[in-house]
Write a structure and sequence with these properties.
Pfam families: DUF2024 (PF09630). This protein is an alpha+beta fold and about 80 residues long. The chain has a single domain, classed as NE1680-like fold, CATH 3.10.510.10. The chain is built from two helices and four strands; from the N terminus they run E-E-H-E-H-E. A four-stranded antiparallel β-sheet has the order 3-1-2-4.
């Protein structure tokens, strides 16, 4: 499975910096941003807590079996990188 990787950076109002990739098999920047918001909300970070956010297409790659399974189940997979 080929996936699109969206490099995502979030700065919260309390000063935390979160860096993660949103991986999805289809979609665009708006959909990747929505997936990022859903994932953040599942970790207690709501829109009101976000001071700045950026989600940009980075590249495409072949998905690992774990990523393919997550995308099949929920439409996306998150790869935490920094502060997550």
């Amino acid at each position: 499975m080929q996936v699109k990787v969206f490099d995502t950076h979030v700065r919260t109002r309390d000063g935390r910096y979160l860096h993660f990739d949103v991986l999805t098999s289809a979609g665009d920047k708006a959909q990747a941003s929505q997936y990022a918001a859903e994932w953040l909300a599942s970790r207690g970070v709501q829109d009101a807590d976000i001071a700045a956010s950026e989600c940009l297409f980075c590249h495409s790659e072949i998905a690992s079996p774990q990523v393919a399974e997550a995308i099949g189940r929920q439409g996306y997979s998150i790869l935490p990188l920094q502060g997550c």
